[in-house]
Design a protein that fits this description.
Elements lengths: L3 H10 L2 H15 L1 H4 L3 H25 L5 H16 L4 H23 L3 H9 L1 H41 L6 H11 L8 E5 L14 H12 L4 E5 L2 E6 L5 H8 L8 E3 L5 H22 L5 E3 H9 L5 H11 L9 H12 L4 H8 L3 H15 L6 H17 L1 H6 L12
Parallel strand pairs: 4-5
Antiparallel strand pairs: 1-3, 1-4, 2-3
Helix pairs in contact: 1-4, 2-4, 2-6, 5-8, 6-8, 8-9, 10-11, 12-13, 14-18, 15-16, 15-18, 16-17
């Protein structure tokens, strides 16, 4: 039979729409994310608050029984929707904490001076706390599961996008559709960076996964980025001018020998494809030839790319131009003389100062180079070829020196 306590429940239940407005208004005032959500999402929030108010009155307050699996299923669906909408978990759960406070305060105010009703409400405290704990656990579990599921799908979509970005036959329409679905800002300039696998060349480092790289980039880069996997390594969409030191720190210790190639900044799908190709070429050139550095910008190696520095033809060109100077019997002094005269724009005094010799000595060496090796620096075409050959030689560094035959004892000494 209905009694005074159940009459109280029916009375407060008739005001649930008013209580729902109070809960929503107070939460909107204190939760920044909810203030900016679309009206359609906000309408769904109001329906959810009404549903949970009815559930509280109907199940917890009236019967005092635990919530069943069926009771909690709509709550789980709400949690999944909020996760998909990007609502922060803390703000989402605050709605339910605030809701319980508003309900309890209204109940105590509705009791008035009745000791009987106050005692009956206090009898429900254990059930209220138990059901609230059960509800919060179900909400958090469903939210986290959905976020993890969405994250896995998003990671897979990012992987697919970056793989397509590095494939020549991928259509631009497909790439644009993928970029839009991922929310990538194609209208703003970004640079593509490729992190190779430090252990792919037999290095001592271990393979670096996307989760660890994402953590490192967040720590060192301090700006928005997107990361995915490709056959070539981890690919990142970065700000236009990413900090070199931050990229080196994200790549890990020098012992890992992990290199990074960075393309020029660009907009749109076509620009990002170009940047990705540049990053890949910068990575290949830099990791093969510039072993002292680990972050290689395409702008720094563009000339080497034009010279096909990673091919046998570039080395053959350097040997044709410099000829006997690369032979073991040729004094290294002549090669360094050429290097400094080119570096200082063929100005005798500056090059002599760099070599710590008298200008007359440098002039004599240049005559010896012309007479003995046939390198005529008065010819502009020869100057250009010598400059390119030295650029190739310097880029190869220890690699080229290792292929130079050892010099026999008793060789001539240049002045």
């Amino acid at each position: 039979m209905p009694d005074e306590f159940h009459e109280l429940i029916r009375r407060v239940q008739r005001t649930r729409r008013t209580r729902a407005r109070v809960i929503v208004d107070e939460c909107l005032a204190m939760l920044p994310h909810y203030r900016g959500i679309p009206e359609a999402h906000l309408a769904d929030v109001r329906r959810s608050v009404l549903h949970h108010l009815s559930l509280f009155y109907r199940r917890t307050l009236t019967t005092g029984r635990p919530l069943s699996f069926e009771d909690l299923e709509p709550s789980r669906q709400t949690a999944r929707r909020r996760a998909a909408q990007g609502v922060p978990l803390g703000e989402f759960l605050t709605f339910f904490q605030k809701g319980l406070t508003v309900i309890w305060e209204h109940l105590m105010a509705s009791v008035g001076d009745s000791a009987y009703l106050r005692a009956r409400l206090l009898d429900r405290v254990d059930a209220i706390i138990s059901n609230q704990t059960q509800l919060m656990a179900a909400l958090a579990e469903a939210y986290v599961d959905e976020r993890e599921r969405l994250l896995r799908f998003r990671e897979q979509d990012l992987d697919d996008f970056f793989r397509l970005l590095l494939v020549e036959d991928a259509t631009e329409n497909v790439l644009e559709a993928r970029a839009r679905s991922l929310g990538l800002p194609l209208d703003r300039p970004h640079a593509i960076a490729i992190f190779d696998r430090g252990d792919a060349r037999g290095a001592r480092g271990t393979g670096l996964g996307p989760h660890e790289m994402r953590r490192r980039l967040t720590r060192h880069l301090r700006s928005e980025f997107w990361l995915g996997r490709s056959r070539e390594g981890l690919v990142a969409l970065l700000p236009p001018d990413p900090d070199r030191c931050a990229l080196a720190a994200a790549a890990g210790p020098a012992a890992d020998e992990r290199h990074v190639g960075v393309g020029d900044p660009a907009r749109g799908v076509e620009g990002l494809r170009r940047s990705a190709g540049e990053a890949l070429r910068a990575l290949r050139i830099g990791s093969l030839l510039r072993r002292g550095e680990r972050v290689h910008r395409f702008a720094d190696v563009e000339i080497l790319d034009l010279l096909h520095i990673d091919s046998n033809s570039s080395e053959a060109f350097a040997r044709r131009v410099l000829g006997p100077l690369l032979h073991a019997r040729a004094p290294r002094t002549y090669l360094e003389t050429l290097r400094q005269i080119v570096r200082h724009g063929h100005r005798i005094k500056l090059a002599a100062a760099a070599l710590s010799v008298h200008p007359h000595t440098l002039t004599y060496r240049l005559k010896q180079i012309r007479r003995r090796f046939g390198i005529e620096l008065d010819d502009p075409g020869v100057r250009l070829r010598v400059q390119l050959a030295l650029l190739i030689l310097d880029a190869q560094g220890p690699v080229a020196e290792a292929r130079r035959p050892r010099r026999r004892r008793g060789g001539t000494r240049a002045i």
